[in-house]
């Protein structure tokens, strides 16, 4: 019963920039790099941010060197900070709240990320005991989004992440073990463990990588074209410029929109239902 509710929660974590006061364009620090052509300190509006909080080069971000903007995704944290935490008060109309709002935004972003992971885990077929623990954790995280600014600034997010991580690992291991048991061959669970692995630039196209644990792995620029990545755990993995053209990520676990935005793919790439196909991917 809760699976469908959890799935809806996960799919509902999307950014609505029309209800946000350009927080990602203002609150965050930017360093000139291959992702950005400028330096911008935290708390300073981007030069492309207009008076209505829209971006004047939104349709040309990549061409203008702002690749990082097309990768970033707040999972809806921006509109919650703008409309809930600060009751629709803008930092531009009320400069006194600006600094506090800019500090609250990355905190809310992390809370939304944890909600995304918890709700996704609950959409899987896991034990009732684990499900009960995740439901309580999800409710706890959802309550945090209703806190006022000062309460949010005083949170110990490390504590919340640590306790949630144990539950997510248990959920991932359970799904992966079931999948591994159905795979051909004599490999054991440990043979699918590549957590933290450095596979930067690795050529692994057309491989069956189902049920692999890629937690925290470095897959930067890896060639993963036409790979089978179902039931793979990608939590915390660095997927920048990894090529997933033709790959099957349909049941990959703990993928975020930001991870996929940073990767490469095409129209044949199969994605989880809660992930949108990036507009800059090759058609």
Key attributes of the depicted protein:
283 residues, mainly alpha, Pectate Lyase C-like, 8 helices, 5peptide_repeat
Task: Describe this entry's structure for a reader.
The chain has 283 residues and is mainly α. It has two domains: 131 residues, no CATH class; 98 residues, 3 Solenoid (Pectate Lyase C-like). Helix content is 36%, strand content 0%. It contains eight helices and no strands. The two termini are 37 Å apart. The mean pLDDT is 95.
Quick summary:
By secondary structure, this protein is mainly alpha-helical. It has helices at 2-11, 67-71, 77-85, 98-122, 128-144, 149-153, 157-182, 257-262.
Number of domains: 2
Number of strands: 0
Q: How many individual helices?
A: 8
Uncertain stretches: none
Q: Describe the biggest sheet?
A: none
Derived from helix and strand composition plus strand pairing, the structural class reads: mainly alpha
Mean pLDDT: 95
> How much strand content do the residues show?
under 5%
What's the SSE pattern?
HHHHHHHH
Overall form: globular
Q: Layout of helices and strands, plus pairs?
A:
Elements: H1 2-11, H2 67-71, H3 77-85, H4 98-122, H5 128-144, H6 149-153, H7 157-182, H8 257-262
Helix pairs in contact: 1-4, 3-4, 4-5, 4-7, 5-7
Pfam families: Pentapeptide
Protein name: Pentapeptide repeat-containing protein
């Amino acid at each position: 019963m809760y699976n469908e509710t959890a799935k809806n929660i996960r799919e509902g974590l999307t950014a609505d920039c029309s209800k946000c006061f350009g927080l990602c364009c203002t609150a965050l620090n930017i360093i000139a790099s291959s992702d950005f052509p400028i330096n911008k300190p935290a708390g300073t509006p981007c030069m492309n941010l207009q008076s209505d909080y829209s971006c004047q080069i939104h349709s040309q971000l990549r061409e203008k060197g702002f690749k990082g903007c097309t990768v970033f995704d707040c999972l809806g944290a921006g509109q919650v900070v703008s409309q809930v935490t600060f009751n629709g008060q803008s930092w531009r109309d009320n400069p006194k709240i600006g600094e506090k709002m800019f500090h609250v935004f990355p905190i809310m972003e992390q809370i939304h990320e944890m909600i995304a992971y918890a709700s996704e885990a609950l959409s899987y077929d896991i034990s009732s005991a684990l499900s009960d623990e995740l439901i309580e954790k999800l409710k706890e995280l959802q309550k945090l989004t209703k806190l006022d600014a000062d309460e949010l600034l005083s949170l110990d997010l490390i504590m919340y992440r640590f306790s949630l991580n144990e539950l997510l690992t248990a959920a991932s291991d359970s799904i992966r073990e079931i999948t591994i048991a159905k795979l051909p061959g004599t490999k054991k669970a440990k043979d699918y463990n590549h957590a933290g692995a450095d596979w930067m630039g690795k050529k692994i196209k057309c491989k069956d990588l189902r049920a692999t644990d890629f937690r925290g792995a470095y897959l930067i620029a890896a060639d993963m074209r036409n790979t089978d990545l179902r039931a793979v755990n990608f939590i915390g993995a660095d997927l920048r410029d990894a090529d997933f053209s033709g790959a099957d990520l349909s049941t990959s676990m703990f993928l975020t929109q930001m991870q996929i935005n940073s990767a490469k793919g095409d129209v044949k790439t199969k994605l989880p239902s809660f992930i949108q196909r990036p507009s800059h991917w090759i058609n």
